[in-house]
UniProtKB/TrEMBL annotation:
Name recorded for this polypeptide: AAA family ATPase
Domain Endonuclease GajA/Old nuclease/RecF-like AAA: 4-398
Domain of life of the native organism: Bacteria
Domain OLD protein-like TOPRIM, first and last residues per copy: 446-512
InterPro entries in the record: AAA_GajA/Old/RecF-like, Bact_Antivir_Def_Nuclease, P-loop_NTPase, TOPRIM_OLD
Pfam families linked: AAA_15 (PF13175), OLD-like_TOPRIM (PF20469)
Organism (species): Halomonas sulfidivorans
Amino acid sequence: MFILKKVVINKYKSYSSKQVVELEDDITTLVGKNESGKTAFLEALAKLNYFTDDEDFKFDEVQDYPRNELKRYQRAGEDVEPIVCTFQLDQETIDEISGDLGEGVLTTDSFSVSTKYKNGRTWYHINCDEKKYLEKLQNELGFGEVTKTKILELGSVKAVVDAEPGENEELASVITHLNNNVVSEAYDWGRKLLDAYVYRNYIAPRLPRFWYFDEYHELPSRVSVDAIRQNTIKGDLTRKQLDTAKALFELAVIDVEELANASSFESFIAELEATSNEITDQIFEYWSTNSNLEIEFKIESIHRHNQQPEKILDIRVKNKRHRITLPLKNRSKGFNWFFSFIVWFSKIQDEQDKNFVLLLDEPGLNLHASAQADLLRFISDLSDNYQIVYSTHSPFMVKSDALHQVRTVYDSEEGSIISDAIQEKDPDTLFPLQAALGYDIAQNLFVSKNNLLVEGPSDLNYLTYMSNLLENEGREGLRNDVTIVPVGGLDKVVSFISLLRGSKLNISCLLDSFNNAKGAQRLDGLIQSKIIKEKHVRFFDEFAGDNFDKADIEDLFEKHEYLEIFGEAFPDHKGVEVSDLDEKRSTILTQLKALLGGKGFNHYKPSQHLLSMGRSADSFSKETLNRFESMFKEINKLY
């Protein structure tokens, strides 16, 4: 299968200046705002070699040439190539050409093809060494050195077949051979006859066809059988919808003429339902949103005054859980999109020749984020057999671990501009990529199944440091398969738990004591609603000792130990002693705040300083080590 490597688009709709786009071998993603030129790029590609005969996918200079330049272009009488595609030859084709013409005759492994507005398709860059081919003919035809010298002097197939053989019978036989085996099988390209032969026999028949799908191909709820039979648009039906409906009947192997004249429809409905079941099974390999949906078909015969009865196909979606059916257009647009996609895709899916490039314009636009992730998986699986180019402006349709696949499309004063993601400067165009990265970073906070939510980064520092310290002493620290996740404050803990309850993660909390009743009530509400178990919400005051009704993680240290760390982090307060603290206040942090005249301080700074102090277990009291170890043992039991 040939691989599309490069596309040059120029003077097509919003593309006023030439744009060169390198494509990936499997999936290329076009990202850009609405009206940036993504659809125009896909359309221009499709028009190069659309998979079926369709007037909508043929170049029309009046409709396609940039409007503000059209009159000047028409007056100049020029002919422009709106699209040039460069393809990589596959090894199988190269081997076949070499077997036919001789090793080394084909001197390139790629070619280009374009379409002009006025003069149609043009081929480029298949280069054959005609002298080497003519040398090879001596072994095949067995002519002598005199004839060989004459042929090599002529130097090309064109020159040889145009030569007068005179009395040279060997030369006459070579000319006959070339006329019968090359010239008659080649395009009429004048001098480059061997190139023309290769194109006609090995390239043109294998040129990839482009298959295009957008939301306008979605199946309608009701389709006139007569419209399908006559291939005419009726009512609100669009051409693309009609084509998809025709594909459904073709897939079900239904004779539309026979259906139009039938009085009973049971056998036709059975065929449609069997096809629907097969398609639905394909959908549910990737559709995790709702497995209770199925397609139902009805065929009605509508009688109008003094007219032949009209047959109507009614397509409905049944929700098996709620036991209701609704017209296809009134149900999930996402499911409708997926179902229509599979129907339209069926036109090429069963072909043995998989030589297609799939062009998907805003796929899954109406899908939920998780369903878009399913669609991405579907597209990835399709890329095993097809090269795919799709457009999107959704961050959930961008693979953050494959940003090399992304090309950004930006509408500038000079027209649409396409570039690699790393070259793009427009913040609005970059937003889906930034959002995809942000979402991926958020997801990857939870790198293990077991996660311990804490309030902030200082908790993360203290827990990590003391856990490592205990493990170095052969004591128990925090389990290695538990990830500590700072959520950015006590008020965010409840939101995190609520949002992550369906993510199949084991979540526990280790928190400072609540300072307000509202936060405690919200957390109690989660426990009462069984969103999180009570035993999975733990507080530092449980491990700080009997003297603490409230505690922060800093209270697990002996006070003189924490004051030493505090003094190292804040040299201006290095002389603070335990006796300077107000014991009436509940925690060491509130005591220090009072000592500083009510001014707060950065709680993170002492924890960060501790990491650089290089302390051993001997620097901490037995009581401190025991408190942390006891806490880690209890937390570990939660997993």
